[in-house]
Specification:
- The protein is of the alpha/beta class and 631 residues long.
- The chain is built from 18 helices and 32 strands.
- 54% of the residues are buried.
- Bound molecules: adenosine-5'-triphosphate and magnesium ion.
- The site of magnesium ion (MG) has 3 residues, from loops.
Length: 631
């Protein structure tokens, strides 16, 4: 089969298509209906079916592959390396499930997981869904305020945490941050479980806090069967990155998610049972949920859980992991590749990467220079894929699992994946744009395929209003991203719908200008924002991180490079797109997931308040930006 036939079938015969895909997982009780879409925009996939995510990720593999590593933990922070076979994972998950059960966790209860990248975090996720409870993982890098608001939203029975995480060799104590969050939160959390790694003191509050290792020793022989849940029973909630505003609590089902992930592992990521998957994300993000934890385990693969930076001890650390563990599939983010790009490319070439088939990148636009650079450095196909926390798996990518010759196209995350009825629409009228090379808002016709968000946690109204109400007469799902489709059906993402600059009546995507700026060889990273201007309505301003800071050490250097960059943009897009100013900074303000906080940059430029910044990585970055603007 080729991609076209696969995709057409998923759209023209969705019942038959998804019935076939559903056979990729075990059902305790078969479903009665493939999709109940009687109350749009809500969709119940595999209605009437009973299943369990943990059973499909762990239990069912134990007879066939008891000794195969399910999880390989590598920490360049603590120097530890540990492996859990499927057989061992099965035992560990039941122990943790027993601990949760003893604390009263039942089907539908929430377990909040605030953990560093250690195996216990993955085990806690699996143990939660084993009981039919709902996990809410909060990225370990968040501080008390962000954590408190998520505790209040999830109302957990148990919070699972650790004494500390570690980043770049620096210990970050989690427990005091959690204690502070518990003070700030309205919801009183009955139980806290602390995994003590011996990194930081973590005093326990009697009655509420428990030491994980002590509890575990009491349940070494625990046998906790899977709770069979309805296909549409929620498995977890997870917040979006908060790039454009207040994060949204995405709620995911069980059966649809398992089916979609199992399919994606085969058709998109080309990951086969027994092979090794290395995803460099964090379990705090959707990429970590889907492709560190559930996807690889559903597929019977070995998943690598990596705790550490991409550049410590050196910029080759990932590739040495690929070599040592014979990783077959790798998944990372453009932001991480841009970090490597500032390092010596030769250190990437020292390792034997023969096991590796593809490198997948997702999370933000993959600019052509970065794609080309990493492609040349590792000599593997680089496959961009576009999706959202909301969708849980790729909207756009390639289906090399069925069509190995489907070629990546630089700058494009590819073509629609099975089940996604992608349409570009006029942003004013919502009318579909059917011609090639027309720019429109990327929308998806309902029902969304299996695995996508069911609703916003506790807020059906917000789900309908946020995502499905952009165009009055067209109830379609809005991604809030601009796209364009070429003659061959490849899509290009041009940025978010709130990232358009209107210069004297010309509408320009910030993404296009960023591409042009980053093609200048001195540029490592760039952010372009539109800033209010009395004459032109808006003008573009560029914030650039250079590869060699010496070049912008003084006024003369800065002025020279600014002029060069402006000429580069003139040459590629025309003078209309030329940034009014190019500012040089050491670091750009980003979310903890590595996404540019354009709205904050824009606010600084316009002298406005910066809004919700709970997810910012480094507040000092904004300070620096302010200074650059003032200069
Ligand atoms: P929020 O919705 O809270 O503002 P967010 O959109 O950054 O945060 P995520 O769900 O993590 O939260 O990110 C999804 C978004 O990331 C997409 O809508 C898109 O803008 C961007 N994105 C993801 N992958 C790609 C890609 N391959 N190419 C271009 N953009 C991408
Ligand atoms: Mg979003």
């Amino acid at each position: 089969m080729d991609y076209d036939a696969l995709y057409r079938r998923s759209i023209d015969e969705p019942e038959a298509f998804w019935r076939e895909q559903a056979a990729r997982i075990d059902w305790h009780q078969p479903f009665e209906q493939v999709c109940d879409h009687s109350q749009p925009p809500f969709a119940r996939w595999f209605a009437g079916g009973l299943t369990n995510l943990c059973h499909n990720a762990v239990d069912r593999h134990v007879p066939q592959r008891p000794d195969q590593p399910a999880l390989v933990y590598i920490s360049t922070e603590t120097g530890q390396e540990r492996s859990l076979s499927y057989g061992q994972l099965y035992v560990e998950v039941q122990r943790t499930a027993a601990i949760l059960q003893a604390m009263g966790v039942r089907k539908g209860d929430r377990v909040l997981i605030y953990m560093p990248m250690i195996p216990e975090a993955v085990v806690a996720m699996l143990a939660t869904v084993r009981l039919g409870a709902i996990h809410s993982v909060v990225f370990g890098g968040f501080a008390s305020h962000a954590l408190a608001s998520r505790i209040d939203d999830a109302q957990p029975t148990v919070v699972f945490t650790a004494d500390a995480g570690s980043r770049g060799g620096k210990v970050i104590a989690y427990k005091p941050l959690l204690d502070e969050a518990l003070k700030q939160a309205q919801h009183a959390v009955p139980h806290v479980v602390v995994v003590d790694r011996g990194l930081a003191p973590a005093p326990l509050q009697a009655g509420r806090d428990h030491d994980f290792h002590t509890l575990r020793r009491e349940v070494m022989d625990a046998q906790v069967p899977c709770e069979w849940v309805a296909s549409e029973h929620p498995s977890y909630t997870l917040y979006t990155s908060g790039t454009t505003g207040k994060p949204k609590g995405v709620q995911r089902d069980t059966g649809g998610y398992a089916v979609a992930l199992a399919m994606s592992m085969d058709l998109i990521y080309c990951g086969q049972p027994g092979e090794t998957f290395f995803c460099t994300s964090d379990i705090g993000w959707v990429v970590g949920h889907s492709y560190i934890v559930y996807g690889p385990l559903l597929a019977g693969m070995t998943t690598i859980v990596y705790e550490g930076l991409p550049v410590r001890p050196d910029a080759a650390v990932w590739w040495s992991i690929v070599e040592r563990h014979r990783a077959n599939v790798m998944f990372s983010a453009p932001t991480a590749i841009r970090v490597l790009k500032k390092q010596d490319p030769d250190c990437l070439k020292r390792h034997d990467l023969s096991s590796l088939k593809h490198l997948f990148l997702a999370g933000e636009p993959l600019d052509e220079p970065t794609a080309r650079w990493i492609g040349e450095a590792i000599g593997k196909p680089i496959i961009d894929n576009y999706w959202q926390t909301e969708t849980g798996w790729p909207i756009l990518s390639l289906a090399r699992g069925v069509d190995p010759h489907q070629a990546p196209r630089l700058g494009s995350p590819g073509v629609p994946m099975p089940g996604y009825k992608v349409t570009l629409r006029d942003d004013q009228t919502g009318e579909p744009l059917t011609g090639a090379n027309q720019k429109g808002v990327l929308t998806i016709d309902g029902p969304l395929p299996p695995g996508c968000l069911q609703t916003v946690w506790g807020d059906d109204r917000r789900f309908v209003q946020t995502y499905w109400s952009t165009f009055p007469n067209q109830p379609v799902y809005n991604t809030f991203d601009w796209g364009i489709r070429d003659e061959d059906g490849y899509y290009f993402i041009l940025g978010r719908t709130d990232d358009v600059i209107n210069v004297a009546g010309h509408r320009l995507g910030t993404r296009e200008i960023e591409e042009a700026v980053s093609s200048h060889p001195a540029v490592a990273e760039v952010a372009v924002v539109g800033v209010a201007d009395e004459v032109k309505g808006q003008v573009a301003r560029a914030f650039v991180v250079v590869k060699d800071p010496q070049r912008v050490a003084d006024d003369a250097g800065r002025a020279a490079l600014e002029a060069e960059i402006m000429r580069t943009v003139d040459g590629q897009l025309g003078a209309v797109a030329r940034p009014a100013r190019v500012h040089f900074v050491n670091v750009l303000p980003k979310t903890r997931s590595g996404k540019l906080l354009r709205r904050a940059i824009q606010a600084v430029c316009e002298g406005r308040a910066t809004g919700d910044l709970t997810t910012i990585e480094d507040p000092a970055a904004l300070q620096q930006l302010q200074e650059a603007v003032a200069r």
